[in-house]
Amino acid sequence: MSTSLRQQLQNKIDQKTKPLGSLGKLEQVALQIGLIQQSLTPSAENAKAFIFGADHGVCDEGVSLFPQQVTSQMLANFAAGGAAMNVFCRSNGIDLELYNMGIVDTDARWPGVHHCSVAAGTNNMRHGPAMTQTQCQQALLVGREAAQRAAAQGHQIIIIGEMGIGNTTAASALLSALTGLDSKTACGPGTGVGADVIALKAQVVADAVSRCQGLSAAQILAQVGGFEIAAMAGVLLEAKHHQLTVLVDGFIASAAALVAEYMEPNSKSNWLFSHASAEPAHSAMLQALDAEALIDLKLRLGEGTGSALAYPLVKCAVAMLNEMASFADAGVSSA
Ligand SMILES: Cc1cc2ncn([C@H]3O[C@H](COP(=O)(O)O)[C@@H](O)[C@H]3O)c2cc1C
Ligand SMILES: O=C(O)c1cccnc1
């Protein structure tokens, strides 16, 4: 069924009134979404974005330019509608849902923010596991259930975003532990730290990753991940059960994708990599996933912003498949 649907989708795209292959990556996007939805007429009209927020114990090592309270302050900003992701979601008609996965201030509550706190942030991964396996499963389940609800609400496109000061260190550690990439290459500026702090991040990551030898992907996620990263992995793993297309954002969301693909190989056929992050090791992450980013806007923000910006292109790719005339329809001579 799949092979012939792939051929039918390819034929439909090839018969559109354009030179063969001339819509480049958009043609691949249309084909992929057709296969995900098992349809020659898929839909990308209803997009839902999730932002998962969580704190990271590794901030004690001084790995970020910003203080840890910024995670909580940004959750308040998202709830008030003032962050970059709020603006891009409003501009592009994307429904945004917010999740507190576990921040230091355990009393904090905001209207419109799902309170799914696993703990008061992770433990410092340099000195021991960031979380227990039970906490990791709990965070994965939040993501899985969020994806299930979105599918039941009729969303076809899911955007995963995150907020968590210190989480580029967790993402670098996942990359290094899962692929064997050396910690220096895996670490970068994140919010904008200089060479001295990047060297410190690399040492912290090397220390944490030294505990990961011989562990499974799920165990590595608990050792060096974050609650928001686990929640994103849960969404990613659930996608294939509901014909959902997940638009993966930058460095941190891609780390969730990497660990999810190692946990359940071949999950990635339901994912699209929205953009190439300016975080240097993102290219290594995409390479490990054998993936290519749709666009490159030199973003290094996270939150899901690259995916919110790429969403109109995804909609256009699907509209091309559904609405564009064929050579026969339009009476245009083919080559
Ligand atoms: C105001 C502000 C808004 C953000 N929105 C996303 N991030 C991004 O930066 C953080 C990761 O970088 P690092 O590992 O260097 O701390 C994450 O919260 C990520 O989402 C932000 C960071 C800041 C400061
Ligand atoms: O690409 C990202 O997701 C990213 C890069 C730097 C800082 N925060 C997020």
From TrEMBL:
Its EC number is 2.4.2.21. It comes from the Bacteria. The active site is at 303 (proton acceptor). The gene is cobT. It comes from Neiella marina. It catalyses: 5,6-dimethylbenzimidazole + nicotinate beta-D-ribonucleotide = alpha-ribazole 5'-phosphate + nicotinate + H(+). Transmembrane segments: none annotated. Belongs to the CobT family. One of its GO terms (biological process) is cobalamin biosynthetic process. This is Nicotinate-nucleotide--dimethylbenzimidazole phosphoribosyltransferase. Keywords: Cobalamin biosynthesis, Glycosyltransferase, Transferase. CDD domains: DMB-PRT_CobT. Catalyzes the synthesis of alpha-ribazole-5'-phosphate from nicotinate mononucleotide (NAMN) and 5,6-dimethylbenzimidazole (DMB). One of its GO terms (molecular function) is nicotinate-nucleotide-dimethylbenzimidazole phosphoribosyltransferase activity. Pathway: Nucleoside biosynthesis; alpha-ribazole biosynthesis; alpha-ribazole from 5,6-dimethylbenzimidazole: step 1/2. Gene3D superfamilies: 1.10.1610.10, 3.40.50.10210.
